[in-house]
Design brief:
It comes from Solihabitans fulvus. The protein is an alpha+beta fold. It is built from three helices and seven strands; from the N terminus they run ααββαβββββ. Strands 1, 2, 3, 4, 5, 6 and 7 form a seven-stranded mixed β-sheet that branches. A hairpin with a 5-residue loop joins β5 and β6. α2 crosses α3.
Length: 122
């Protein structure tokens, strides 16, 4: 497993990527082909679904110029699991607009096999 802090930073960065092809390459690098990403109300499986999911979030939040996603810097991991918080921050002043928590399980190649995302009070 790569360093958990670096992993969380790379995870957050993919949600900010404006170039669709670089976003797609980041997904191939970070996510297993048969990955699954779960929120409290939605489920996404595979690279194409993750591309759609991340692109949707980019267009809704980052592409507007209003927000960016950043790692909270608290990632820890062991036994192929990593947990971390992320913040959606104002691009104007860095104010935290949303807080999330992810728990990911990596596959044998160190890519995300399972990702459970939780929104937390900000």
């Amino acid at each position: 497993m790569s360093d958990a802090t670096e992993f969380a930073s790379r995870f957050a960065a993919q949600w900010n990527e404006p170039d669709a092809e670089l976003r797609r390459a980041s997904i191939a690098e970070l996510w297993a082909k048969d990955c699954a990403h779960f929120t409290d109300t939605r489920e996404f499986r595979g690279h194409e679904a993750m591309f759609d999911r991340i692109t949707e979030a980019y267009e809704q939040f980052v592409g507007t110029g209003k927000y960016q996603f950043v790692s909270a810097g608290n990632a820890v991991g062991h036994h192929d699991g990593i947990k971390f918080n992320w913040h959606m921050v104002s691009s104007a002043d860095g104010t935290i607009a949303a807080v999330g928590f992810d728990f990911v399980v990596l596959d044998a190649d160190g890519r995300i096999g399972l990702d459970y995302q939780f929104n937390e009070p900000s």
